[in-house]
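Cysteine hydrolase
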Amino acid sequence: MAEIKAEPFAFPARHDQLALIVIDMQRDFAEPGGFGASLGNNVSRIMRIVPEVRRLIQGFRYAGLPVIHTMECHRPDLSDLPPAKRDRGNPTLRIGDEGPMGRILISGEPGTAILPELAPVKGEVVIEKPGKGAFYATELAEVLQQKGITQLVFAGVTTEVCVQTTMREANDRGYECLLAEEATESYFPEFKAAAIAMIRAQGAIVGWTARVDDILESIAHA
């Protein structure tokens, strides 16, 4: 067993059971003109982490470790979109409406796609999720079980919503979770800081956090 330098203490990595999950690095959340920007958010904060997310993805690929991508999106008929979710956010531009990048957060639309710099390659799993957590109404649990995964490294957006929600879901299912600090971001820096503090509080109550360099150094010897 290898150790990854982490907070609140070293993460006990088992490389043969480790996978990277990249949460919702989609055009609608990261690019100017997308859904995130329509809500008044500074999307440049999201674009800032793209190089670090890319480094992580490349490191996992080079080590032969699984990379799993998620996308928050809904069916074109909106049958998996609860009214309570649709009715929140920008009242003039909601999920399913036509936006600058096609229908907002609808499967198959241009804005729903993962950023080209981080696009999945052949053989990598892509999970389309209708909720904030990646386990809700998806096949993620089955995919991880089939691959023998017990430990998850997390990157993506936003730290306090979809990333933290998925980490909490995974924690309750018995997975050991590690958040890559520079490879996750929020539109609000104080929210990211609070989420990181909550995740690693009370002896890693939800999980660990670590620097990208320390994660890469460990998996380079996988």
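thats it. The beta strands are 2-4, 11-13, 18-23, 67-72, 98-99, 102-103, 125-129, 151-157, 176-185, 208-210. The chain has a mean pLDDT of 96. bye
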